[in-house]
Amino acid sequence: MGYSEDAIATAVLEIFDSLPAKLKPVKPTAEIFQWTSLSGIIAVKGRGQKPECLSLGTGIKCIPIDQVAQANGSTLHDWHAEIVALRTFNHFLLRECLDLATSPDKISPIIRFRDPGELSEGRGLQPFSIHDDLELHMYSSEAPCGDASMELVIEAQVDPKPWSMYDSIERTPQLLRGRGGFAELGIVRRKPARADAPQTLSKSCSDKLALKQCTSLLSGCTSLFVNPKNAYLKSLVVPKAQYSAKGCDRSFGPSGRMKPVADRHWPAGYAFRPLDVRTTDLEFAHSRRSKPTPSTELRTSSISAVFNPHIQEALILGRLQGRQKLDPKGASAICSKRMWKTVLQVFAAMGMPQLLQTVSEPMNVRKLKESVLFADRQRVKDEVRAKALKGWARNDDDDFVIEPD
Quick one: CA dihedral 260, 264, 266, 269, positive or negative? Predict the structure, then answer.
């Protein structure tokens, strides 16, 4: 790289420092220290160029399985920092697509219109591409939960005995709660880590990032407009204290659990592109390792920060801070329902008849995801889950209707 790991981390840390206090944990005292996890997506364009933070997210929690059906697309299922950063990055790309669709003469520093010869065969989809000379990197203040951090979990245990491998959801060792049965390695795990926390079916950040090595950073709705070829992570930067070479190689590397798909290339620009895990000496001021004294009580922050050049939000429990649970105005810009609203705006602005016809009337999102529009992407996901990330249980009880304006 022509830039340092510290420069990647600094790009995110400086943006976080500039955010208003309402997006941050409560100011620490000698008695109590609120901690959280921070992640960001960074773009680097050419050697010597300063890395730019395109999205940022904080958070360490997710929605219990018994609340998923009530989310109705308006509440985030998972607000671990890595996932918030990824969702916020996709929101940023959708907004860039909308800006170019409504103002074709505008120049985006991140995406461009694809040439006619580049367009996907048959469907005329994915009219945009991330610039060819752009690299994407990720910074995280904590090791991704799940398989990549299991060695760190084992080292931190006072009692080395693994937690029970099974509970009312777990019937096979392929779907373990965070630290459950930590002697089992290289497998899909679900959040959260604590044995006494409400059950979820959200997969660990290690598992989600491993899958992103094949599907790219693009979410389903963003993949309708942006080709995945240039949308893969080049590296993941974490603090040295949060790095396990053995865990990361096993979780993400071509010789680890991803070996069955290590040589795969799929249609429409999809391929296995392993990320390179690197380390930084820099620490996040609100990480749990930054508490002022050993006797200071650690507490998790309830705030989840959302940032990209288009938005700044503070979330609590997956919704906008200060809004009631069922208030429609409490939906974040990065929630599924509002992201799909943006998709419809891009459809209309682009005048893409094959897409407009598909969503010309109210349609539930599950049905849309099963349509031919997502066939290439779904093929990749199905193969990776069958061969490399075995035991991946779908968390799809949250279905909602997409209504055109």
Answer: positive
